[in-house]
Amino acid sequence: MQLIRPDINIDFIGRRKLALLLSGLMILISLGSLAIKGLNFGIDFTGGTLVEVKFTQPPEIGEVRKALVPAGYGHAVIQEFGSPEEILIRVQNREGEETSKISTAILDALHASFGADAVEMRRVEYVGPQVGKELTRAGILAVLIAMVAILLYVTFRFEFRFALGADAALLHDITIVLGLFSITGKEFTLPVIAALLTVIGYSLNDTIVVFDRIRENFAANRKKKNPEGEATVANKAINQTLARTLMTSLTTLLVVLALFFLGGEVIHDFAFALLAGILVGTYSSIYIASPLMLSLAGRFKITSEEDIKELEARP
Description:
With 315 residues, this protein is an alpha+beta fold. It has 2 domains: 13-39 and 131-313, Multidrug efflux transporter AcrB transmembrane domain (Multidrug efflux transporter AcrB transmembrane fold); 48-127, Alpha-Beta Plaits (2-Layer Sandwich), CATH 3.30.70.3400. It is 65% helix and 11% strand. It has 12 helices and 6 strands. The chain has a 4-stranded antiparallel beta sheet with strand order 3-4-2-5. Strands 1-6 form a two-stranded parallel ribbon. It is elongated, with a radius of gyration of 25 Å. The two termini are 28 Å apart.
């Protein structure tokens, strides 16, 4: 069964100006929101109170969260720690709120819901903002290292203008995903950074598949008596890989949607970042990376003679 005809010929490159205009608008909105509203950093970055409690029986994470809602801590980070009976609760300190008051309020809320004898306090710690600053630097550094590594890899594997197109598409994806987190006010945590790095890898994989077909088509086109224009060749390559791109995105989206709706509060924001990243990444691999690469025509070589010889030697 074929969902997409093999002879499909959609003029993606012909719509590049509209696509770039749309992307520019989304980026402006994202940057505006980031500048005005900023990100809602979680306890991993801002610091807060960590409370470890032990239950007599393994509790459901959802029930623990429900018990904390009346105390105002329904958005706390709750996870198992060591054994199923031990639970780690992390909450962000509100202005003027002391750690001792937070721990007392949490314990009282759990006692009211599970019983005084069912829960005991094991430890209470304050996570300072200095740790958050270090995590912020580490997160930014991880993204920058990934971008530089991608630039070097694509330059080595293809050409410099392909690398610029790929990195521009990735910056496009990251900016829009961060903008969505700023606009929606969703909590920005370490798992979200992990999701961003996953999005970078996913989007790059899509882009490399398209670029590889474009390079092959460029090499074949150079040998024709009447070679076609770059835009025509690139557009054919995008159409030739369209079925693979859409099917990969669709199957991945099904898994991420299941995590988003059924995975629970703990991974909700992580799944949201993946969901937005996959949608934006699929769009950018078609409408952003290739058009930007084509816009650099004449400044860098289309396909080197060594590339043509390498392609001709392939079985």
